[in-house]
Each structure stands twice: as structure tokens, then as C-alpha cells.
Amino acid sequence: MDLGLKDKVVLITGASGGIGEATARAFAAEGAKVVIHYGKNQAAAETLRQKLPTESIAISANTADEASVAQLFAQAAARFGQVDITVANAGIFPPDDVPIHAMTTEYFDKVIATNLRGGWLTAREFFRLLAKTKPESACLILIGSTSGIFGEAGHSEYSMSKAALEGLKLTLKNEIVKLVPRGRVNMVAPGWTWTPMTEQFRSVDEAVITALQTRALQRIGRPEDIAHSIVMLASETASAYITGQTVVVSGGMEGRVLKQRQEIDPTKA
Ligand SMILES: NC(=O)c1ccc[n+]([C@@H]2O[C@H](COP(=O)([O-])OP(=O)(O)OC[C@H]3O[C@@H](n4cnc5c(N)ncnc54)[C@H](OP(=O)(O)O)[C@@H]3O)[C@@H](O)[C@H]2O)c1
């Protein structure tokens, strides 16, 4: 199936690793031109750029910073004239479990600034560019998380940042059509996926078993699982009438294991 993505310009934030990198490869395989955004990992972004089969550019920006995100889109527009598809993927997940009673505002603010403000700034600069360039079609894909759907004890700031993007998605699907009548806004919400973000949990059998107890498919996600759903949603051929939706890519996750068996006393039930 021709997904109609040849020569489309796709900007992917956080494409220097993990899900963003797999997404850049998947779009390039469909013939799209790619703006590889990265934060600090220039080497990874440049290596990716050299390997992609289509025209691409690597640009650094701090997605939590207003001026930096504006400059990212200005540079992308200077190179390609317009951006047709944006994937707001850059994000952080502090690995430690920190319950709310032990969490500082500095810790909270950092995650909110990167994930929520960063997603909002990316969307705003994309929409500002759409208002100027008015392409025939346009698509924004936000990257959420099962954490924003089921919650995640010890990660209130992260689950909030991802849940809030749901509201952004629902609002922007109604705003984008005022700029670009065929424009669409959707979200892909990954479950646990093997990337640099989660690498340190690979050897923690208990954590993997607990996660697999919550889903039908007995494996952790791969970046390509997420990337292919993003490409499918971005394609007008495949998804022209899909907007305001969240595709959960989590192997059929149904919730959280809240207690291990040994913590449960059935005599007190
Ligand atoms: N992996 C999972 O299990 C999982 C599950 C659910 C949702 N997600 C979401 O999926 C997205 C991608 O995650 P991943 O696992 O692929 O993460 P990753 O491998 O850690 O990659 C994160 C990317 O975001 C960039 N980034 C982070 N903070 C930034 C900032 N302030 N400014 C600019 N760039 C920044 C990083 O750039 P540099 O490295 O170049 O600095 C990197 O390219 C995130 O939004 C994450 O929350 C992941």
C-alpha cells in the first residue's frame, strides 16, 4: 500500500534515539523528508541523518524553551519551505519512584517543562508555521503514554504530563481545521517500550514480569511497534478520517498490578 508520504516533510522531536529514531527511519522508508530534532546527542542525530535514504537535516533545540523551539521550526522551514507532519515525541521519564509526599517542585517542574510545555510549544510553533504556509494537509501526532491513562505510582508528574496532552489533542483537532481544512491531530500512547529511556530495567526480572502480567501480548514493545503506528496515523491514505484519537500501543495492557501476591492476605479480604 502506498501511504502517500513520499516527499512529505516530517519533523520529529527527540529523534536522536529510541522511538523518535525508529520513527525517522520509518518515515524515510516511505520516502518522506525528515527533520531530525535532538537535544544533546548530536552524534546520534548525525549518524541517523547519514543513514536515512531521503533528504534530511539534524537540528538541536531544547523543547522546553520557547525561543529554541521557534528556531527549530524556522530552520526546518528555511530548509524545506514547510512542515507537513510533526511528531511531538521528545520527553523524559525520571526512573526513580518518587511518591508525591517526597517530590520537590523542582523535580515536578522539570518533567512538566519538558513533556507538557515542550509538547505544547512544539504544537504551537507547528501551528504558527501552518498559518503561514497553509499546506494542503497537515498532521500533528502527540506522544502520550499508558502512564497518562492508567496512572503510575511514584510518577505523578510524568503521568500528569502525558494525561494533559490528551486535552491538548482534543482542543487542537478543532483548531487545526481552521488553518488547514484537512488537518488532523492524534496521539500515540506507548506502553513500556525498549529504548534508552527504559534500558536500565531490562535486567530487572520482577519489573518485566509485573508488566507482562498486565497485557495480552507477552513482550515489551519495540520502538518500531510505536513508529509504525505513528506512520499509519500520519498517512492520509490510511487515516484521512481519523482525528482526535489515541492509539494505545501496549500489547493489550489493561491496567497495573498494584500488589504482589505475597503482599495480599486473603484472610483479611
Ligand atoms: N520508552 C517507553 O517505555 C515509553 C513509554 C511510554 C511513552 N514514552 C514516550 O515516548 C517518547 C520517546 O521516548 P523514548 O523512550 O524513545 O526516549 P529516549 O530514548 O530517552 O529519547 C528521548 C528523546 O527526547 C529528547 N529530549 C528529551 N528532553 C529534551 C529536551 N528538553 N530538549 C530536547 N530534546 C529532548 C532526547 O534528546 P537527546 O538525547 O539528544 O538530548 C531524545 O532524543 C517520550 O515522550 C516518552 O515519554 C516512552
Bound molecules: NADP nicotinamide-adenine-dinucleotide phosphate
Q: Unreliable runs, pLDDT <50, ≥5 residues?
A: none
**Count of domains:** 1
* Mean of residue pLDDT values: 97
Largest sheet: 7 strands, parallel
Secondary structure topology:
Blueprint: E1 9-12, H1 18-29, E2 33-38, H2 42-51, E3 56-60, H3 66-80, E4 85-88, H4 105-133, E5 139-143, H5 147-150, H6 156-179, E6 184-190, H7 205-212, H8 223-234, H9 236-239, E7 246-249
Helix pairs in contact: 1-8, 3-4, 4-6
The structure holds NADP nicotinamide-adenine-dinucleotide phosphate.
Q: How would you describe what is shown here?
A:
The chain has helices at residues 18-29, 42-51, 66-80, 105-133, 147-150, 156-179, 205-212, 223-234, 236-239, and strands spanning 9-12, 33-38, 56-60, 85-88, 139-143, 184-190, 246-249. The protein is globular and about 65 Å long. It is of the alpha/beta class and 269 residues long. The protein binds NADP nicotinamide-adenine-dinucleotide phosphate. NADP nicotinamide-adenine-dinucleotide phosphate binds at residues 14, 16-20, 38-41, 62-64, 89-93, 114, 143, 145, 190, 192-193, 195-198.
Condensed summary:
The protein has 269 residues and is an alpha/beta fold.
Annotation keywords:
269 residues, Rossmann fold, seven-stranded parallel β-sheet, 9 helices, 44% helix
